[in-house]
Specification:
alpha+beta; OB fold (Dihydrolipoamide Acetyltransferase, E2P); eight-stranded mixed sheet; five-stranded mixed beta barrel; 6 helices
Amino acid sequence: ILTVTIMRKAVKKSTPSRPKSPAKSNHKYEYTELSKTPLSSSDQNNHFYGVIVDATFPYKVKQDRYICVLKVIDPTLNPKVKADQFAQVVIYAKRFEDLPIVHRIGDIIRVHRAHVRIWQSKTQFNVYLTYKSSWALYSADKYTPLGQASTDGPYAFSGKKATHEKQDSAIQNALRKWANAFFNQNNVINDSQYTQLSKAAKATKDFDVVAKILQVFELDEYTNELKIRDQSGEVYYTLALKLKFPHLKAGSVVKIRSATHDETSVNKKVLVLQHYSNIMTFIGSSKLAAVVSQKVANERNSEKATLKNKVSMTPVVLTEVDKKHNGLTNTNLSDLFHGDSKDSTFRTCFYVTKVEPANHLEAVKVYDKKTKKVSSAKGSKGGDYIYQLQFLVKDVSTQFNNNVYRILLYTHEGLGANFFPQKATNLHSDSKAASKVKESVELLTRFNSWVDAVVERRNGYFFIKDTKLVF
């Protein structure tokens, strides 16, 4: 018995210890940089982050199949590493609402469970949402494309919820920092990747455009008309559905993906968009957007030509607002007068049906600062001259109701003092000034003339401010 025991101990001592198994990752997902994705992989377990440089609007290709096609880059795969380098992401879904709607170039996308292959010499990720693939969009700016403050979480994602691990915050912060620096130092979109508007009419297929939005005009309840201009100096117009493109504002630089020149348009040059066309803004650090914004100035030759005709066949916006209000979203008259917003400053667009008082000579009054009383300027020998007018207005949201809406131009406290080109003076004694004011009033009430204005609510009334006539 003793001998057996000794032998067992000897055997136990001579047995080699097992090698330790490699430590398992604490993360559920292992992300791969775009250039390091194993192209031989046949499974669907590829997870990655990318910065978006292009995207279609989601569209239907056949029954029960919708797709969205994106181009993405990262520090290992981008035009700086090698010209025209990016990865393509094709996302498939059975429903339109399951796909991402990309409103801004430079934002970040995260994808789980993608299949990878080479297509036309480019890395292509195929993302099948019906087979447990997923996506999430993250803001690279302080605000999302629709104006909400950015957080660590995604502003849009597939499925019921988006996962978040400790590594996600680190990856997103690093990629966000890189994206802003990269867009600040590089155009990212090369000149060869979009068409100048001056060459749009000669294009034989659909093309992309990088341009500045000069004006957003509300055609009806569902559609905005964009007036755009690029560095070639050419001006075009295009229609943008509000539901598809709620993020567009005057002054923004955009990339329009997949447009064609409308050969049937006679009065103005028009771009036609397809169901898969997209209109995207740029993140704030974009060098390209900054250059276009600075070099492209407003142009009103087409509006001037229209106003020379007896009847304006196309809408003409007669005013411009101060640049500090460029980010202010438009509020229609229905929401302005019947909504429950607690804000005091709004931007709205309307047409004027009538100006009161009807006698243009009474548009200017004398204001007594001490008594705060207003009197007719007729026969006066001085004093503080102010405009005191009421505009009876309508817009597309109110044109079919019987209500009368009043917007006031009362300049006694400085609001709207620069609305008219003519400074307030005694119109009864100054015939030249009276003639100019009369022309402005006639222009305001002319068919298809519109006023884009900033108004301030005081005691239930809306007063025009920071707005001026440009015609």
